[in-house]
Amino acid sequence: MPRTRTGAAWVGVCAAAVIAIALIVFMVQNTGGVEVSFLWMSTSTSLALMLLIAAVGGILLTLVLGTARITQLRHLVRGHRR
Questions:
Q1: Which of 4, 10, 30, 35 could link 48 by a cystine bridge, Cβ 3.0 to 4.6 Å?
Q2: 71 inside domain
Q3: 12 lies in a domain?
């Protein structure tokens, strides 16, 4: 059976659902409070929330840098076609 975009999308949705369930379980199990200090700021919140914020920050940083690199490579390829 050939691979299709719809099949790949289905696998992606299933993987996202499994990751979301694992994240929910993780957050429910890690509700203990922690104190976080960064530069002059200090706050106290749940461990799960702090780890989630750190993960989202890492994902956003990766997306920004990846997008910049892809744009750079596309510009380079278009320049060689002319």
A1: 30
A2: yes
A3: no
Q: How many angstroms from the chain centroid is the CA of residue 15?
A: 13
Handedness of CA 37, 41, 42, 44 (dihedral sign): negative
Domains in the chain: how many in total? 1
Residue labelled with tokens 């530069």: 39
Q: Establish if 5 belongs to a structural domain.
A: no
Give the strand pairing for 41-46 and 33-38.
antiparallel
- Domain interval for residue 78: 44-82
The sign one gets for the Cα dihedral 51, 64, 37, 41 is negative
d(CA 17, CA 59): 18
29-80 tens-digit pLDDT: 888 888 888 888 888 888 888 888 888 899 999 999 999 999 999 998 888 7
